[in-house]
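Honest question from a wet-lab person: if I give you the sequences of every part of a complex, can you actually get the arrangement of the whole thing, not just the pieces? Trying it with mine:
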Amino acid sequence: DTAVSQTPKYLVTQMGNDKSIKCEQNLGHDTMYWYKQDSKKFLKIMFSYNNKELIINETVPNRFSPKSPDKAHLNLHINSLELGDSAVYFCASMGDYGYTFGSGTRLTVV
Amino acid sequence: EDQVTQSPEALRLQEGESSSLNCSYTVSGLRGLFWYRQDPGKGPEFLFTLYSAGEEKEKERLKATLTKKESFLHITAPKPEDSATYLCAVQAGTSYGKLTFGQGTILTVHP
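Yes, you can. This is the full assembly:
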């Protein structure tokens, strides 16, 4: 029933590790996004895919790599995690009236 | 560069005390202005989209309005369950759907 689902909800990992966050939407939308929300609740776009094609790539370190195997899935892989990567990461898809967000993945790098 | 500024950063109201949240923006070719509500530990939840100056939309105790430079979210007779962070975002005409968000207003309604 969930429209946009992300896994995992919480992720605690050590500096230098590689981790992935998965996102799936069942709304039939063509466009999906990754946003990062910092400790001050400020949401900033990272990437966007339209039907498996990368269309937005903001100034994000190369350690972050999105992958879209099909238009319903958009995963985020992060290499060599740093303390500053700690944040909440939101996946979203865009329909006719706006975005539908997932519930977020809280990443803590220790 | 598109910019969105929300004020106040935090607002405390008594139940039934009406007020307004402000969202000032600069954008190259506004395609839409969005309001979202975010509860702790959850993703933003869509409230309204406004497309042109003069437009207004209502939902229960909330009413959103839009001018060429700002948007207001009016809350009439709020209840404790209206407590949340309210986010404003703009979409520019050639942005591939990219939203630029403000920092949000944390609303607390006391019974």
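Two things worth pointing out. Chain B touches chain A through 23 residues (CB under 8 Å). The CA atoms of residues 15 and 111 of chain B lie 5 Å apart.
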